[in-house]
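Step 1: inspect the first sequence and its tokens.
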Amino acid sequence: MMKRLNKLAPILVIIVLLTAWEFTVKIAHIPLYVLPAPSAAIGTFVQEFPTLIRHAGITVMEALAGMGIAFAIAIAIGILIDAMPTFKKCIYPILVVTQTVPVIVLAPIFVIYMGFGYAPKILTVVLMCFFPIVVSFSDGLGQMDKEYLNLIRTYGGSKFQLYKIVKIPSAMISLLSGLKVAATYSISGAVVGEWIAAQSGLGYYLIRAKNGYMLDKVFACVLIIIILSLMMNGVVKLFGYAMLPSQRKKGNKNLVSVHITKFLNNIYKRKNYEK
């Protein structure tokens, strides 16, 4: 019973807040251009849905492209950080410093050098998604049982096999945690890039609505941004379940054990074949 209440509590709080918001706007007769009621925002969302979906398609495309690039770079940098301590000492402070600079400050610079196309928006997404992925992945690579490494080395495993069999599987849960954060950031990054210079996308729609004091459209756009962010997070969760079915109940150690068992079986088969 308590578990159900704990799950329902956030939903009940949201309902109470929306109800209070609705009644406050109605009773105080607050104009639409100052603060729309939730019912007005939802009505506009339904009315503008075809337009919002068209703009959302552009934003999602930029978010996916940026997140894919950030993922590829983060995996490469994460492995280098783990494999080369000197590289970590050189690059890690730079990564931390870059996170202190707001992306919205860099976005206009990207537009100056890269124009008004998709490139500056995708680069904005890359910068927002890269850091949580690379930090989570590199931390996951470093947090593992040394006994597994020693076992692979004892049986003549190469450095490539160490990463393939032990390190990368052991870092998968950490990597997925970083991907969940990055998935949420990806939509925000694309919208921020579209604020600065765009002719389509949710950021462009949001700025147009804001400049026209059409706050019902602004809230409708915010609503679809929230929905898309949650959907991106859900896609990463589904990806995790699909790629790592064994971790649902048993965790990383079981996943590593599966890979080590396969590795040892291959060694035994090779020795028996040689005999």
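Step 2: inspect the second sequence and its tokens, then contrast the two.
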Amino acid sequence: MEQIKAVFNGKFDSLENIQISPFSRAYTFSDSVYEVVPFYNSKPIAYDHHIKRLQYSSNALSMKINSNAISNEIEKLISLCGSESGYVYYQVTRGQDLIRSHMHSNDIELETFGYVLPHFFETKFLKIMICDDLRWGRCDIKSTSLLGNVLSMNMAKEKGCDEVVMHNDNILTEAGASNLFFVKNGYICTPSLSNNILPGITRQILIDALGEIDIKVHEKDFTLEDLKAASSAWLTSSTKGIAPIEEIINLDCNLNLNDESYMIAKKIFDSKFFS
């Protein structure tokens, strides 16, 4: 197997040689944030938006990052990949404690870590399930604190599903690792942004691209009943692109994979995402 290229605190090496302390606050408290930056034809997709969101997440945790240094490391990882298509995972951690403590030192030094993998953006038809949203109240921060997602996604895996769509008291939020779109009565819909929803960059690419051809995406609070009445639905993320939902195992609905609105969205999205 080809060695995975990685970087830790500015030093590049193979992933297998990276060593991180067990007292890293990423390990003990998930006190860290991350980004997944896709690239195509060796060019990062929506790069500035990813760096801006990493800055937002870091600021929310009162961590001061060096965006220029991080950008340089991500660009170098892409150049080391050996594939023109893939993604970079990049993480910023508050640092190491001398001993595990909820209260961190004010002069603790940040840790940065990233790696690059080849990835081919192939359309996959998804089988999903509906579940309660078990996550914490600041999902707008792209934090590594993902236990709620992990529990839900593995419950879905046990039932033969690829993903979940979550809800809070019947109000749709998002998927386990994606944003949700669906078509109802000919209108493209997506839950509006809140602390319960990550502001997905791929989500915004699609909304902007549709706006350029005068198709408005309706953003508001939607319910499970709205999704039940949908003619088609799909998920968006940096690694999925647009992934159509073919079945929801615990919701009685009839989804059409050839729905006209979905086909338009897919075509216009691909022209932007892979341009």
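Step 3: confirm your contrast with the notes below.
Helices lie at 25-29, 47-60, 67-80, 147-158, 201-211, 224-228, 260-273. The chain has a mean pLDDT of 95.
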